[in-house]
Amino acid sequence: DSTNIVNGEFTIKGRAAKPTLRFLTLENQENRDRTMVMVEPGMINITYDSTFHISGSALNEKFADFNRKQREVNIKIRSLSDQYNEAMVDETMSEELDAELTSAYEKVAEEAKTLNYNFIKDNIDNELGQYLFMTSSEMFDAEQQKEILEMTREDYKAKKNIKRIVDRLEASEAVAIGNKFVDFTMKNPEGEYVSL
User: What pLDDT shows up at residue 14?
Assistant: First the structure.
C-alpha cells in the first residue's frame, strides 16, 4: 500500500488478523529510507527525523528497544575500529595495543551476537524474529542455529531460505569429526579411480 505525507503526517488504516511484518519506505528526491514495522492490533506511531521511531504496540516497542541496543553496540564497534585505524595510520600500534583492541572488539562482537540471538530466540514465533533469523543466522554457531530451529514450525523450516540453513547444518553434521565418512570413488590426477 502507499500513501502521501501531508503536513508531515500520514495515516494508513486497516485490520491485522495476526502480527505481520511489513517494510515501510520513505522516499523523496534526496533519499530513500526503509524500516521494518510489525502491523498488529492497536495504534502504531511512526516518527522520522533521520531515523524511524516506531511505538504503540508490543512487538514494535520490543523491536525499538532492540534497535536502540544494537545502535549502542555499533557505536562501540566503530569506536574500536577507529582507534585501531588511527593507531595504524599514526604508526603507534604496538603488540599490546593490538591485543587490547582485539580483545575489546571480541567482547563487543560477542555482545552483538548475544543481543541478536536473544531477540531472535524470544521472537522466533513471529515474522519479525523469523525474518531476522533468516537474514543473520550465519552469525550464530551451529548449536545456536539448531536451538532456534527446534523452536520453529515445520512450515517455516520448509521455506526455501530456511531449508538452505537446515541442509547446511545437516551436511556439516554428516562430516563432523568422529562420524563415519561415506565411501566414494573418484579419479586421481593420473586418471585412475581411487576409492576411499
Answer: 77
Residue with cell 549502542: 72
| Residues ≥6 apart with Cβ < 8 Å to 147 | 121
Closest CA to 142 of 167, 178, 110: 167
In a 10 Å sphere around its CB, with 0-12 CB exposed, 13-18 middle and 19+ buried, how is residue 175 labelled? exposed
pLDDT classification of 3: cutoffs 50, 70, 90:
confident
Q: What would the grid cell of residue 9 be?
A: 503526517
Please give the model's pTM, rounded to 2 decimal places: 0.81
**Mean per-residue pLDDT for 58-65?**
93
25, 57, 111, 124, 160 from 117: Cα distances, Å = 26, 22, 10, 10, 22
The angle formed by the CA atoms of residues 58, 13 and 64, to the nearest 5 degrees, is 30
Contacts of 92 (CB under 8 A, 6+ apart): 86
- Residues 6+ positions from 75 with CB-CB distance below 8 Å: none
Q: What distances in angstroms separate CA 19 from CA 45, 67, 104, 187, one per listed residue?
A: 16, 19, 38, 55
